[in-house]
Design a protein that fits this description.
With 474 residues, the protein is α/β, with parallel strands linked by helices. The protein contains 18 helices and 7 strands. Strands 3-2-1-4-5-7-6 form a 7-stranded mixed β-sheet, with helices on both faces. Helix 10 links the parallel strand 4 and strand 5. Helix 4 packs across helix 13 and helix 7 packs across helix 8. The two termini are 21 Å apart.
Length: 474
């Protein structure tokens, strides 16, 4: 997918991109602010220009994937059944032209060509207990951190929000880095320590079977610390050297794999400390950012008209465009749930007008039941009488608009990467406003990891060294 490469933008170019993004998001904010479950209650289809309705009405999910999201099947020829309005074509072009490119230097992760469940680039001990998605992530980020640590002469890595420690284990026991793991959940830390010991025992058995392959230096497990990191305050634990660090204190590299919400903000703020030499951050869960406080961080973006991002926009930025396009191409039955939930919202407001957008516990295999059954089960889940009288004709008319509901949701998803781009651009500018250096690299396969952009920051310019960090998979 085309898009903007951060490496090709000067500081002024990044600031101008922020200006362009806020203007475009302001223009299309009604689509982004809309909740798809209010498709019928708020007549969302009627809010679109008539020419857009004419172009999109009747398109099947695969056609939406190909024509609107521009994610055709391999070898598929894109053919429009009618002339689309220039305003809709402009939306498509703008959405793709202003978003950061998410395509890494490889098309398909070569590590899964032989077996889609096992990375060929990780040995069996490091794959145990780790799902394929996470195998891909810990290997790619771990290897980048190792290269970044080497070029910035860091003495230790601090993995913040380390969870069960899969990344920390790979970096320490697989790549030989000195690693401190920070996690706020005692249960996860206990699980991580158990997995550390299990992996060490496995590696020791392999050493006994193959004594010639034993490494010269002893293996070091991650050093685990139970600590909740406050994004608004300094956490000294992140900066303290490990016991076996050389004199003169630590030279720290901070990293976080899918650091949720304000945890990303905490890492960005700690980067200004003199002990921190480098940062490799993959954020996620933008809707959990504090408002204000978590966004915007840079002075430039904060001063731009229209830079404010509501919870709805930040939540939408976390959707997986590539995964949804695949569902459209496959005409996944679950797409019907958009329409069913919107019909349920209508029934809820008829019964209780003041009850809006209540959370509804998932209804198993919803796409396999009739719309009336879904609505009755949904009413019961929000504490309403499931036997309330329903208008069968109205429900039938709503179900007939199933593809319209999917089309509107696809429009919002087309724009969602612009929101993520603005959030990440704000972080880049925040680092640069402090006089430091920051880049953004697509590191994971977007089909596996929707949040696949890593923010790399250093105190000194790396120049050509960044090309080392961008090496493709073999």
């Amino acid at each position: 997918m085309p898009g903007v490469s951060v490496r090709g933008l000067s500081y002024e170019g990044r600031r101008q991109l922020a200006v362009n993004l806020t203007r475009v998001l302001s223009l299309y904010r009604p689509i982004l602010d809309a909740y798809i479950i209010e498709f019928f209650t708020d007549n969302l289809w009627g809010t679109l220009p008539g020419s857009w309705q004419e172009a999109l009405d009747g398109l099947t999910p695969p056609q939406l994937a190909t024509l609107l999201l521009e994610v055709p099947r391999e070898g598929e020829v894109v053919r429009y059944r009618s002339v689309w309005p220039l305003t809709l074509l402009a939306l498509k072009s703008t959405a793709r032209a202003l978003a950061f490119t998410r395509m890494p230097g490889f098309q398909t992760p070569s590590e899964f060509l032989e077996n889609p469940s096992q990375s060929s680039r990780l040995t069996a001990p490091f794959r145990k207990h780790v799902r394929p998605k996470k195998q891909h992530e810990i290997r790619r980020l771990g290897e980048l951190v190792k290269k970044l640590s080497d070029v910035t002469a860091c003495t230790q890595v601090v993995d913040v929000g380390s969870g069960q420690g899969h990344l920390s284990r790979f970096m320490s026991l697989g790549l030989g880095l000195k690693v401190k793991s920070i996690e706020g959940d005692q249960r996860l830390v206990g699980r991580a320590q158990h997995l550390d010991q299990e992996l060490l025992q496995t590696l020791e058995k392999e050493d006994r079977r193959n004594p010639q392959g034993v490494q010269a230096s002893p293996r070091r497990s991650p050093h685990h610390v139970v600590r909740w990191v406050d994004p608004t305050a300094l956490c000294e634990e992140l900066l303290l050297p490990l016991e076996n660090s050389p004199r003169g204190g630590a030279r720290v590299l901070l990293t976080g794999l899918h650091a949720c919400g304000d945890l990303s903000v905490a890492l960005l703020r700690h980067f200004s400390r003199p002990e921190v030499a480098a940062l490799a951050l993959v954020g996620c869960c933008y809707m959990k950012l504090s408002d204000p406080g978590g966004y915007p961080l840079s002075q430039w973006v904060a001063a731009l008209p229209g830079s404010q991002l509501s919870y709805r926009l930040r939540e939408g930025a976390c959707h997986a465009l590539e995964e949804y396009a695949e569902r459209l191409q496959d005409e996944a039955p679950g797409l019907r749930t958009h329409c069913y939930r919107a019909a349920l919202e209508t029934a809820i407001r008829v019964a209780r007008p003041e009850l809006r957008r209540p959370g509804v516990q998932g209804i198993p295999r919803a796409h396999e039941i009739k719309i009336e059954q879904y609505v009755r089960r949904g009413l019961q889940r929000v504490g309403l009488d499931p036997q309330l009288p329903l208008d069968a004709a109205a429900l039938g008319a709503q179900q007939a608009q199933e593809n319209r509901v999917v089309a509107f949701f696809s429009l919002a998803l087309l724009l969602a990467p612009l929101v993520e781009t603005l959030i990440l651009l704000d972080r880049l500018l925040y680092i640069q406003e402090q006089g430091f250096h920051a880049e953004l690299l697509p590191i994971f396969s977007p089909e596996l990891s929707p949040r696949n952009l890593v923010l790399v920051a250093t105190k000194q310019p790396l120049g050509q060294a960044f090309s080392v960090l961008e090496t493709e998979d073999g």
